[in-house]
Amino acid sequence: MAQLSSSMEPMLKLRDELDIVIPTIRNLDLLETWRPFFEPYHLIIIQDGDPSKTIKVPEGFDYELYNRNDINRILGHKASCISFKDSACRCFGYMVSKKKYIYTIDDDCFVAKDPSGKDINVIEQHMKNLLTPSTPHFFNTLYDPFASGAEFVRGYPFSMREGVKTVVSHGLWLNTPDYDAPTKLVKPLERNTKYVDAVMTIPKGTLFSMCGMNLAFDRELIGPAMYFGLMGDKHPITGYDDMWAGWCAKVICDHMGWGVKTGLPYVWHKKASNRSENLKREYEGIFCQEVGVPFLQSVVLPKECTSVQQCYLELAKQVKDTLGQVDPYFIKLADGMVTWIEAWDDLNTPKGNQKLKHHKWLVSKRRSKLITKKKYGVVDGKSKRDAN
Amino acid sequence: MAQLSSSMEPMLKLRDELDIVIPTIRNLDLLETWRPFFEPYHLIIIQDGDPSKTIKVPEGFDYELYNRNDINRILGHKASCISFKDSACRCFGYMVSKKKYIYTIDDDCFVAKDPSGKDINVIEQHMKNLLTPSTPHFFNTLYDPFASGAEFVRGYPFSMREGVKTVVSHGLWLNTPDYDAPTKLVKPLERNTKYVDAVMTIPKGTLFSMCGMNLAFDRELIGPAMYFGLMGDKHPITGYDDMWAGWCAKVICDHMGWGVKTGLPYVWHKKASNRSENLKREYEGIFCQEVGVPFLQSVVLPKECTSVQQCYLELAKQVKDTLGQVDPYFIKLADGMVTWIEAWDDLNTPKGNQKLKHHKWLVSKRRSKLITKKKYGVVDGKSKRDAN
């Protein structure tokens, strides 16, 4: 390895620096499989859909759970920027976290194994990626030069070997690949079985498809750009939440001089979605992708934008002015982007923190009530005896 | 696989479309290990150093061998553009080949095995890379979407899925990694043991270290940009021949809208060079790299340059004007670049082809004489009896 951040070794101290964000509509039984890896960390669960439904979380996990009512109460009218009935709602979790790093995972992802048969510790690998520099200015043919056993190859300019701060680590998926609806229709049985033992920096000026299934990032630095857009209920688009965030975040990383890595670690993805339904839902998203990507590839942020918030507001302006002429959806999206930054700033100030503490107390109180109910034999309004 | 060129399946027909170029100063016993893979193809061997020395080539291979005297005779005063006492001399082979594709390999590279223990067919993999499109405009997180079992991931714009023509396939090396002299000094025992099962396109606008150890390219398209520069004897720089070619070729590929892939296939690299000697030899090359890369990253070729030759001459001009002010070596190099294009054009016209045919006949006559000598017991001026 070319260099190793001194902060890498003591992974334990990261317990206080990372939150795991999970959006879900179902009981989180899958956490049992993640227990050895997730139990040391704090979970932020964003319950999508019907807020009256109770999401069961296996015992022993330290978590806070927000449903739609909580989001509405905390953000007031600004809650309009958080999607409903779409996993895009997860970005609310980024906003209420107070940690430096976020790891987010889908509720249909399980622990994958490396080729030696060992369970993959996703957080350890993501943190290795984030805590070592990126190399966006020149491509290293032996992949991440900061990975164990790797180096810069001959011809790599010495002046570029310090690299830059890594702020996004994009992990991959074995089994069900992350294909769009038309590809799934054409190749229903295709599975990703190839374990590619590599991490690499996505070069400056190049966009990529950032999937939210297995993703880590530096919330303190790039958090305000991780807005998952307006999707699902009341909007014509769904399923492009993570893509939108990835395209915008990459444009901003390039401008700020930060790096994005992709590759290891893998999760095991087990999706059982309705393919025709997906096509119907993604139809408008494909249109958004075809016009959005070329636009974002051409965006130039003025050098006056020196914070992520400034960059994001400038991007929102350009989205409104340019894409807004193509489709009125982009006008709404641009407004959502502005509201998102306002809401982010509200909650990430000393005053906002104070307000949030009260809400966190309310959320935790509800949870205690639920645990008490469970302890005394009442779950979901029924006593254990009734259930039997 | 996203698409497969119909010309891929019948690999046999490629026998007439690919030459293998090997620069060497020693007997080519290593060809025995390559026999199953190289025997169907024509070899162009460029003998470096003392032209009076006889290079032995195992029987059964179809080859032509050029030494310095041949190069001087064929190119006349333009032979000044071909390096001597440096593996950069190999580019002469690209010039005299009449095939569409070139595969070039170092004489210290052997057949590697894939993780299943199977011998890797380098030419088959390189041709898969070259015969399927590249995707330089958007990064596919599951690597080459045209590889077997792979696809474009969600969020990859449909308008970009046709890809572009691939003209360079850069293969990698197991065992001794391709490090520069300082890195070798610092990490003498480091070996590359990681087989990364991936091929990927190097995005547009990004330069990389192109190693000539295990490289294939489309000679007809990018050949004139594959000049390995002025290195070795009479020049202050050595060991940066392939790097220079790679940086220039990538700039021109980006301008022409062509793609460059890197990754599979691997060769087994077994280098036994003198590390301190390397440092002495590469010292000036490192300087060249530190100023050359930022310059080439900033080069813009005018849209009037519509052929590789035009691009290359424009590049030579810019090298002379800009880098020539930094060090007089670059003035010589720029002149060499112009001479190279002149020589290329001389040999790649109907008239040049005719002239070359005569030289090829001379080279083949010398070879027949050598075989006859060998048959009747005389090798290197000694009879077999004397040798015993």
From TrEMBL, chains A, B:
Site (Required for activity): 154, 161
GO MF, one annotated term: UDP-arabinopyranose mutase activity
Keyword list, A-Z: Cell wall biogenesis/degradation, Glycoprotein, Golgi apparatus
PANTHER family per UniProt: UDP-ARABINOPYRANOSE MUTASE 3, UDP-ARABINOSE MUTASE
Catalytic activity: UDP-beta-L-arabinofuranose = UDP-beta-L-arabinopyranose
Glycan-bearing residues: 154
GO biological process, one term: UDP-L-arabinose metabolic process
EC category: isomerase
GO CC annotation terms, alphabetical: cytosol; Golgi apparatus
EC number of this enzyme: 5.4.99.30
Family assignment from sequence similarity: Belongs to the RGP family.
Reported function: Probable UDP-L-arabinose mutase involved in the biosynthesis of cell wall non-cellulosic polysaccharides.
InterPro entries assigned: RGP, RGP_fam
Protein name listed in UniProt: UDP-arabinopyranose mutase
Compartments reported by the entry: Cytoplasm, Cytosol; Golgi apparatus
One protein family per Pfam: RGP
